[in-house]
Amino acid sequence: MSKRDYYEILGVDKSAGDGELKKAYRKLAMKYHPDRNKGDADAEKKFKEASEAYDVLRDPQKRQRYDQFGHAGMNGGGFGGASDFGNADFEDIFSRFSDIFGGDIFGGDPFGGGRGQSRRRRGTGRPGSDMKLRVELTLEEIAEGAEKTLKVKKHVKCDACNGTGAETEADFETCGTCNGVGEVRQVSRTMFGQFVNVQPCPTCNGEGKIIKNRCSECGGEGRMKSDEKIKVNIPSGVANGNYITLRRQGNAGIRGGQPGDLIVLIEEKPHEDFEREGNDIFYDLSLSIPDAILGTEVQVPTLKGKAKVKIEPGTQPGKLLRMKERGIRGLNNSGTGDQYIRINMYVPKDLTPEERSHVEALRGEKHFDPADAKERDKSFFSKIKDVFG
């Protein structure tokens, strides 16, 4: 079943700005929110569909890829694409879009106790931070895709306390400030009515509980620094500046908080032989004057080794020869580019007396006179014109 257009889902034009996108998503999220539509599978589907659309269109790089390639550009290889919101947990969505769902943006308790409050009770710890790494790729690796092993120093869950931060489970006690809710509320009354301001509890940092006896290994954080190796599959066709997001592969959260993401930025190494334009590659071939005149067969480099190319007699400088599908395999198998050979002419500067004599002998020959060649071309086209009237 084909996926719906993201702009269509949110009901916005392709020129919509950040504010318009956020407003459109908030409206749909309010309408199909799970607390407002308990047990309604269709509402759940539409809520996740809108969340996926907003996740892509609010991100400039994801949006650019979607505008260029559609849904095909968002799938496969973890390539900066849309998350699988169809299988996503609601808490993950609420966490990622905290600017939409944070605090009392839905109005406190209209969904039966308040999404923010109930989430605080269930949640523990603070989320880990995202990490960014750069990976250099050769043109050959980009052409076919590659698997890279990245070395990274990051926070991982403490094995001694299983990420809780406490020596034992008995070393937790309920926070006395918020009574385990994780939030404190300040009520203010004005002539316009009553306003409730909800903030994370300053005593327990929103966790609802306090550690009496901290883990001796991690000092109560529930995480430790570690040197890790992470494998990342890079699809073919990526370009300089693209990124791959590895969900939950960043720094571990504090005391059981959700891990951050690992964002891998692609850097393309300059190639000694080729220039890249999209999925096509270009190679400059310098021919000697005799080879250009008489024709020859030469070997040229390709991304998969050497290949023979026939040079026709009379080949002119500036001519482009095409080697079909010898370029880069596109993202998500969207086709393979070509290799082009740009013909240049090698003109020697230093000649021996004998070589100079040979060239001087050709100077006066009519086939080496550009003016004569132009006249012959003119005569040829005149004859064609006479034949076809």
UniProtKB/TrEMBL annotation:
Domain spans labelled CR-type: 145-227
Name of the molecule in the record: Chaperone protein DnaJ
Species assigned in the record: Rhodohalobacter mucosus
Keywords: Chaperone, Cytoplasm, DNA replication, Metal-binding, Repeat, Stress response, Zinc, Zinc-finger
Disordered: annotated segments: 108-130
Role played: Participates actively in the response to hyperosmotic and heat shock by preventing the aggregation of stress-denatured proteins and by disaggregating proteins, also in an autonomous, DnaK-independent fashion. Unfolded proteins bind initially to DnaJ; upon interaction with the DnaJ-bound protein, DnaK hydrolyzes its bound ATP, resulting in the formation of a stable complex. GrpE releases ADP from DnaK; ATP binding to DnaK triggers the release of the substrate protein, thus completing the reaction cycle.
Listed PANTHER family: CHAPERONE PROTEIN DNAJ, DNAJ HOMOLOG 1, MITOCHONDRIAL-RELATED
GO cellular component, as recorded: cytoplasm
